[in-house]
Amino acid sequence: MHPTVKRLLGFTALAGAGYAVWRAMESRRVTSSVTWEAQPFPYPPQPRTPSTAPKTAADDSPTDWIEPDDGACPTSHPVKAKLSSGIFHVPGGANYDRTNADRCYTSPDAAESDGLRASKV
């Protein structure tokens, strides 16, 4: 048998075995409803289950922060926060209008209690 044919058969057998192992591992995978939520630097992401998911503006119960609607905050939660930088912006600030928020807070105190700092400008 030609050496190239032997190599091709060996590679095919190895690929088939790898695929069988991958299928066996995928069949044992546990699905979970846990997602990961970004945290301000230097903290690692935190798991978020559906029961601890943040409230949106459509919810009736008040909360300190909500998810923004396309980066815009409602009037009930005017403070815009960027989790990647750990900074929040208040209305009337220099960068407030161009900031696409990750979270919207009711007040600067609520944002500070969540570990964020105020914008310097």
Question: Descriptors for this entry?
Answer:
121 residues, alpha+beta, five-stranded mixed beta sheet, two-stranded antiparallel ribbon, 7 strands, elongated
Characterise this structure.
- The protein is α+β, with helices and mostly antiparallel strands and about 120 residues long.
- Helices cover about 25% and strands about 15% of the residues.
- It has 2 helices and 7 strands.
- The chain has a 5-stranded mixed sheet. The chain has a two-stranded antiparallel ribbon with strand order 1-2.
- The model has no long low-confidence stretch (mean pLDDT about 85).
Q: What does this entry show, briefly?
A:
The chain has 121 residues and is of the alpha+beta class. The chain has two helices and seven strands. The strands form two sheets. It has a five-stranded mixed β-sheet with strand order 3-6-4-5-7.
